[in-house]
Amino acid sequence: MTVLPKVGNDIFNKEIWTEASRLVQAIAKIQVMHDETLYTWETLCARFNGVCIDNSFLELKDVLGSVNLTYPLMKSLENNKTYPLVAHIGGTVVQNGILIRGSALKLTFILDRATPRRTKAGEIWTEVAKMYANSIQFIHIKVYAITDQSIQRELSLNIDSVVDKVPITVILVLAFSVYNCLSTDWVRSKPFMGVLGLAVSILSGLSAYGLALYCGLKWQAINLVSIFLLIGIGVDDTFVMLSSWWRTEGNDVVTRMSLTYQDAAVSITITSITNIISFLIGALMPGFPCVEIFCWYTGLGLLFIYFWTLTIFGGFLTLAGRLELANRHCVLFIKVRMGPGKSQAKRHGQP
Asked: How many Å apart are CA 71 and CA 61, to the nearest integer?
């Protein structure tokens, strides 16, 4: 919790420290029920040498103004206790180790999360404490309370606010993909391959999410962002495969598929390996769990895109090639009539 003065920007006022101390005492009395067990601050707090790690620095309110506060540590001569002011006072002005001014107080409530039950009870307790602190109107102070889950919760809300725009994004990408798979020839065009390329990208994302959750990786809302990366990379692989296919005209389907894979598979393999290794490095980076989880999910998605593109997309491309060889319309699948004695396959130089 962050405590700011309502008037001015100096927190070295006894009334401010007194109100902050009363707030801490009130929060310490909050009780919550979980699994038919009553929990309080005393039962949930993290302890050092058997004593709760609390906001005992507020005891200095009694000597505020009469004793110089040393920074970053203040040792009280009355009780021989040392207070880490560096952890509780922000916006400080220090001269010769003496704390002259500060603009904010930080109140911390560190909980013991040794067991899943205590962790869940602690989450309930912190939410109640947060709502209580934010609901009180003080005379001398303003209180802003957050918990260790606040960032994740706000991030989830931000992502949820744009989820309704995902269908629009998919439609636009789908239209772009289909448009780039068309040509002036209804036999050679491959609009359904554009649809399939997008479907493979989404399927890869869902497969990656399922495998990651099955393996025990934690879920976080930011992982949803990876689906846009996967769509972009998957559609790009689609264009690479189709570009290679169109450069193999004049051969039978088997030969065209062989040449397509010789040309496109190398490019797709190199780019996929590079991308996967990049995210693997991020996944192995210590100290940033959020980055690690995101990189694992995205890296798995890229791996699935690689395999699904070479298998699912390649298989359907073979079927599309047979339709093209048979001079069938790419959408209606009906025979396209050409000039007398001239078939579509012959026009492309095929025997």
From this structure: 16
117 and 185 in a single domain? The answer is no
Residue 351's pLDDT band (cuts 50, 70, 90): very low
| 83 and 195 share one domain | no
Cα atoms found within 13 Å of the Cα of residue 338, Cβ hemisphere only:
15
Which pair of tokens denotes residue 57? Answer: 């620095």
User: Residue 152 has which token pair?
Assistant: 């994740």
Name all contacts of 333-340 with Cβ < 8 Å and 24+ positions apart: 336/186, 336/187
Please tell me the distance from the alpha carbon of residue 87 to that of residue 106, in angstroms, as a whole number: 7
Query: What confidence score (pLDDT) does residue 179 get?
Result: 92
Mean pLDDT value across the chain: 87
Look up tokens 């205590």; give the residue: 118
Look at the chain and report how many structural domains it folds into: 2
Which helix (H) or strand (E) covers residue 54, if one does?
none
In this structure, what DSSP letter does residue 311 have? I
The whole-number average pLDDT for the span 230-241 is 92
351 prior amide bond cis, ω within 30 = no
**Average pLDDT of span 32-43:** 88
Mention every residue, 6+ apart, whose C-beta is less than 8 A from residue 260. 241, 244, 245, 248, 317
For 224-282, give the DSSP string: GGHHHHHHHHHHHHHHHHHHHHHTTTTS-HHHHHHHHHHHHHHHHHHHHHHHHHHHHHH
Residues 166 and 272 in one domain: yes
pLDDT band at 345 (very low <50, low <70, confident <90, very high): very low
